[in-house]
TrEMBL record, chain A:
Organism superkingdom: Bacteria
Domain FAD-binding PCMH-type stretches: 1-222
Upper lineage: Bacteria, Bacillati, Actinomycetota, Actinomycetes, Micromonosporales
Name of the protein in question: Oxidoreductase
Natural source organism: Asanoa iriomotensis
Keyword set, alphabetical order: Oxidoreductase
UniProtKB/TrEMBL annotation, chain B:
Organism classification: Bacteria, Bacillati, Actinomycetota, Actinomycetes, Micromonosporales
Residue runs in coiled coils: none
Protein name: Carbon-monoxide dehydrogenase large subunit
Protein origin, superkingdom: Bacteria
Alphabetical UniProt keywords: Molybdenum, Oxidoreductase
InterPro entries: Ald_Oxase/Xan_DH_a/b, Ald_Oxase/Xan_DH_a/b_sf, Ald_Oxase/xanthine_DH-like, AldOxase/xan_DH_MoCoBD1, AldOxase/xan_DH_MoCoBD2, AldOxase/xan_DH_Mopterin-bd_sf
UniProt xrefs under SMART domains: Ald_Xan_dh_C
Domain Aldehyde oxidase/xanthine dehydrogenase a/b hammerhead: 19-135
Amino acid sequence: MRPVTFFRAGSIDEAVAAVSGHPDSAFLAGGTTEIDLLRLNVVQPTLLVDVNDLPLTYLEDIDDGGVRIGAMARMSDVARAQRIVERYPGMSQALLLGASEQLRNMASMGGNMCQRTRCAYFRDGQSPCNKREPGSGCAALTGVNRGHAVLGTSDHCIASHPSDVAVALVALDAVIRTIGPDGTRTIPIESFFLPPDDTPSVEHPLAHGELIVAIDVPAVPVARTSRYVKHRDRVSYEFALVSVFSAMRVDDAGNVAELRLALGGVGTVPWRAHRAEEALIGRPATPENFAAAADAEFADARTTPMNAFKVTFAKRAIVRELSEVTS
Amino acid sequence: MSPVVGKPVNRVDGPDKVTGAGRYCGEIVLPGLAYGLIVGSSIANGRVLSIDETAARAAGGVYGIMTHQNTPKIANQPHLIPSLAGQPAPGESFFPMQDDVVHYWGQPVALVVADSLEGAAHAAALLDITYEAGVPVATIEDGRSSAAEAQTLFGGLMPARDERGDVQGALAKAEVTVDATYHYAANHHNPLETGVTTAQWDGDRLTLWDSTMGVRASQLTVATLLGIPLSDVRVITHFVGGGFGSKAMVWPHVTLAAMAARHVGRPVRLTLTRPQSFTSNGHREEQEQQIRLGAGRDGRLTAIHHRKLSVTSPFDDWAEPATGVSTQIYGCDNYLGEHHLIHGNTLTPTFTRAPGESLGSFSLETAMDQLAYELGMDPIELRIMNHPPVDNHGNAWSSDGMADCLRRGAELFGWSGRDPTPGVREEGNNLIGTGVAGAGYPVAFMMPVQHARARIFNDGSVVVQTSAQEFGIGVTTSMAQVGADALGVDLDVLRFEAGDTDLPNTTSAVGSMGATMQSSAVHNAGTTLRNELIAHAVNDDKSPLHRLSPSSVRVEGGRMSSTLDPSIGESYADLLTRNRLLDLEALGSWTPPPIDTPHGLLTFGAQFAEVAVDKDLGLVRVRRMTGVFAPGRVLNPKLARSQLLGGMLWGLSQALLEGNQIDRQSGRWALNNLGEYLVPVHADIPDVQVEFVEVEDDVVGPLGVKGVGEVGQVGAAAAIANAVFHATGRRMTELPMTAEVVMNGGSPG
């Protein structure tokens, strides 16, 4: 691996100054993806600014019932935190179904928001890849792409987003809080994950040196019965073929009163199923309507011969999940 | 004290492994050690045009860079022959960096040696290599039009076509037929420890610490390639972190490590990275198989036609011999097996977990299941009916056990009363099914004479030695058991030493033959020494055993005594001490029967599986597996069970998870790490039951050991696929059986 300069930041200001003052620098949190990519020569910073000592491991209550999660809180700690388990069980489940316990003990929540795709053509450091090397093309379009996205794709990139917990967070309308050279700001999570369009290399609206310091999860009462189900080839320790986060309230008349639905494994970003939500809210909670909503969500899906099965798979997974939640 | 062979003795090297005290070949520390890293080509077909080393050399800490321009020419290129034959055993009949031609993606084009592994990796990334790239042909789809029937396999060692009777005629006349075509993805071995070699020169003498399944094969191959005397090459291997066939042959990196050490004048440790382990030591090739069965209404097989098409390298006619399995455990007068090959841009495929038998048996055993349905017969009865008392040459089995394995397995698994109707057992979102398959793995006597040495000191302690290496199967433990019983001493006074070509020769522990070969040599060494000691005693007028007939002397716990009066006797130690003998040693050897010995030679087994198939999503989970095997004498049931269980789980892995494919544009393997190339994790592992059927075998060596190295995987994937059919009514003709295969694919049976 390339020689890198390592700097352990003692404060947020120091970390932000160090990265923003150096053109080839990057923050280093848990390192569970970043170190791999360094070794693979996929990312090539010459200065790594370690943010593990920053006082960002907290979880605290905000507003009336929401939770602020420090960016350096470890995934394993967040998964088992009482307030997460009680208020957002689906988020806790998403965390526990991600990676392995060893990785979750290292990986941070802020780092997870910046997790890179597992697309083999991105990770090989050689193939044409617009995400890694803008303008070089996309080998995945006609390559081995069973695991790739069917929603939110473009002619320039079909890489799927790998995170589980981010799927829960887009359903919960979380907000990313950052501190950068230009001060603090908040970014609604759906604006944080950028679809590839014609700039797949730009995955987030973060400025160079802008550090995620916290994730705010608002109070979402319906999320107290939320669930996350992850379907994959291997029972454990694998990225999702399709995952479904759902939180639904059905009123006394049998109509869907509230619904939060998001999908993993199928999108270029953690996929909030807005169309399905719109199709169902106010309508009877029946398997037929669930199926129609799933159809609506995938109406614009773009598939390859290898990943076309994901559409059928995901629709069935949605119908099953909503049916089980209802019953 | 009773014999220790057959006892579930714990691994003697267990503490060393779990505490880290055991040194693997990549952990050998030598003064001045340098670190080598191979740079693989990033094209699959073409030429290296230029290699600019400027930036790499400027990176600092670089001791040397080897390319085709300065790599020494090899002295001889041995041809590919299985290492079991005891000859030089290169993984492919090709050695890289001899010219600028690139035959496959990842082919070594440079080797960087530096003062750290990280430094070598950095310099390697800075090499500026340009290529002239042609279009690769690396998949069946790419090369189908160039396929041709192979005449021989394994460098001429065995015929690629085997024919008896009149298959076409018999198929035409058959009352019932089954015709199925299968596609199998390539498999990679993925032992936890990737290939690694540490090389050190002392003048003209070379020492290699090589992670290998055969120290002798490494010695022979490296000496031949370098053109130096065998006596100048010593190979040491005390611990290996798994092989699964990837270390059965000797791949170029082993010799490159030796060349690099000479090039930089320092010892060199050369480690394959995980991605390189996908392009450096073979794989199980992508293949298509077709099987046609003909049978009478009574269920008796009248015709078997088994055809395989696969991709091999430009250099070798390699195909894992997959069709022979169809003429092993079932009898049939009309048989045709044929192998067709595409020469493409890949390295030579190699032995991989039950080579040939695992996929060959998938075709045969799922077709047999289909036949059972066509006939309305129980699949166990169909198998037993077709299992003959003799092999396909008419030779009686050296030992059988096939029917007993099926019957005992049926009992353990709870087969009786099974409703064969497919697709009718629903539990929640799942469809439930059960399946069975037969298993057989050949005992192949292609190895040379095997040797071992036993040595006793005058305090009664014993060392038994042979060159075989421990690669996780427990040979260090089981051979100590064999040596202790042969010599008549307690296990705790005996140490077994192995993993060094300076010790008496045994052949690579491959093809499920390791335990047979080693135990035969060790047993004979121990027995020879025992007989010498007894002879000393009965000829020694100071011994209480003086003038007894040797046959009336027994030994237990290191003490010789009269079989008539056990109070008359003395210990080995007393005999040696009194005679001022500091030690005594004996060499034991075992000459295997000829390869065409007139016996049917197979290890038999039976596999059972129960699956739950998600009826909407197609995901298959195995709920339980039962395997019953008849491997002859079991040296250590704990170790044997572990090995068979491991084989069964690799079968599960092959059935549901493992599969790699080549990117058709680049010719590169699409998956190159353990995040994406899936093998089972604990959560995938169901309740697995392993049991033995006892059979005595006096052909396969003095102890009657047939081996458990491969047969555990044979039939396991087929049992799972048959269970999937029972669950869903769909025939699986593709491996791995991933969700989309089960959802969309398969054929209604």
